[in-house]
Structure formats: C-alpha cells, structure tokens
Amino acid sequence: MDAVTYPTESVVEFIAANVVPVRIPSDTEPLATEFRIKWTPTLIVLDWNGKEHSRTVGFMTPEELIPSILLGIAKTYYELDMFNEALADLDKVIEDYPQSDAAPEAIFYRGVCGYKSTHDPKPLKQAYEKLQAAYPQSEWAKRALPYRLLP
Amino acid sequence: MGAMIRWETDLDAAVSKARAANKPILLDFFHPG
Questions:
Q1: Long-range contacts of the stretch A30-33 (C-beta < 8 A, 24+)
Q2: How high is the ipTM of this complex?
C-alpha cells in the first residue's frame, strides 16, 4: 500500500476530500484487540463516533481502493439510516467505478437503500435486473435472486 | 515529491476531527515492519 496505492495522486486527493485518515501499527494495544486485528493491512471505515461500519483485509490497487472506501462510506450512511447520503455515494461507485469489485455490492445496496427510503420494492427488482445484466457471476447477483419475484 | 496522505496517528484525535468535519474515518492497521 505504501509503495503503490497510497502515493497515487487520485488516492491522496480522494482521502483528503472524503475521510479523516488515521494509521495505527497493528501491534498497538488495546486497539488491536478491540478491533480484532489478525492481518494487515486491515482498513476500517468508522463513523464520526468511532463505530465500525465496513472493513477490508489485504492489498488493494488504487483503482480498487477508492471505490472500496466509497462503498464503506455509503454503508456507514446506510447503517445510520442516512439513505439519501448513502444513495449518492453508491451511485458514484456504480457510475464512476463500474469495473471495480465494489460495483456489484453497490448495486445491491442501492436497491436496499432505495426500498428502505421509499418502501417501494421497485429498487430491489431493478438491482436484481442490473446485477443479472452486468455482473451475473457476482455473489451479489446471487444474493439478489429473490427480488426477481417482486412485482 | 508528490502530495502525501496526512495520516492522524491517534484514534481519539481522528474521532474529534471527524466530528468537527462531519466525515467518516478511514482507520488503517498496518504492519509496523
């Protein structure tokens, strides 16, 4: 991460604009135990009260890191019932990083957020249809399978 | 030398900064080497 991903200009700019970054050595106690750290790098997205909402383990390229963090931010808003903010960041992942590993999961959560914010099942079915069309082999296409039965 | 990420090194300080900025936190646990 230090050699390739973190020095990349787009990563530096994205992190400065979107999150407060903090680095902790993995042997720092009690944090390593509190966060159950077993391998590095472990990247965790926390809300502004320090509560965890998303984590990844392992190296990521610059092309994968930015959409991965964006998805983590979106999941933070989603879990705090801030659906409009979540939808805005999910749309960025879907539209700006369609080739990333985060994109299929973003489509799934876009459907869920759309449903939870409107109680209209259409976004769930749209998520299923988009996943089947664009990412049929992804695990998220499988998780959305029940939504094919929605009206 | 290009721009670099301005990492905080203390989680409590990062939480305070995040509250003030209304931003999430990216917490990186790294191998100290």
A1: A31/B11, A31/B29, A32/B29
A2: 0.94
